[in-house]
Amino acid sequence: MNNRKMILAANWKMNMTAAEATAFVKEYSAKLADSKVITIILPPLTAIPAVASACKSSGKSDSVLAYGAQNYYFTQSGAFTGEVSADMLKEHACGYVICGHSERRAIFGESDELVGKKVARAIETGLTPIFCIGETLEEREGGKLEAVLSRQVEKGLSGLTEAQIEKVIVAYEPVWAIGTGVVATPEQAEEAHAFVRILLRKRMGETCEKVSILYGGSVKPDNVDSLVTQPNIDGALVGGASLKVNSLLALHVGCVKAAG
Asked: Of residues 101, 110, 190, 252, which has the active-site annotation?
């Protein structure tokens, strides 16, 4: 096993009230064993204060149980109705923020350039960006996987120094596998992760070995082991399977086994 951090990121998307989030974190943290694996809870914005309070009262260190946000805007303030800034997230002691999830790209029209601005601003303000990349089914079947990932990585990390890139968590999500029940085979996932590692190596040399690359796309307890044991897969960004305590605990067990 390499020395990269194994990460289990729970993207709750538009689910969980504050009360539900509190109950979830209390139950999860009570059953969560300390390990080398960090669980990052990513609730909707309205539930962040509740998750923050529950995590703090859990007694777990932030290297075992942490939390963050699913989205934000890269400017400090201004006339951006419905958005929040990095400083607003930091006010609640968020440690992480997702940048460029495929749903943000596809549904809300976020461009590679916008995602790059979000990644850069996150690092500037002390948030750890979970930088999402991935291809559609049409792009994969058209032989464009490497071209798409190359473009997304180049524009998403544009202008960052090696030291800054080292602070980024990358999440590879084949768009065709998100929420569909279809999962990339371990071989397909590893192939894409290995290519992303090559792209990072071109930017930062051997320091790329310190960057965690997560897999996202219909990850479930029955397939997590085969995915996170691949050489370049350092955990999972999980959607639907993170909404039940026992399911997330089972995913955590799989990550712990892989972490060694």
From this structure: 101
CB distance 75 to 118 below 8 Å: no
209 catalytic, yes or no? Answer: no
Whether 139 is a known active-site residue: answer no
Contact between residue 136 and residue 175 where contact means Cβ atoms under 8 Å apart: yes
110, 173, 193, 252: the active-site residue: 173
In whole angstroms, give the CA distance from residue 52 to residue 40.
11
Would the pTM count as exceeding 0.90?
Answer: yes
**17: helix, strand or coil:** coil
pLDDT digits (tens, 9 = 90+) for 131-146: 999 999 899 989 999 9
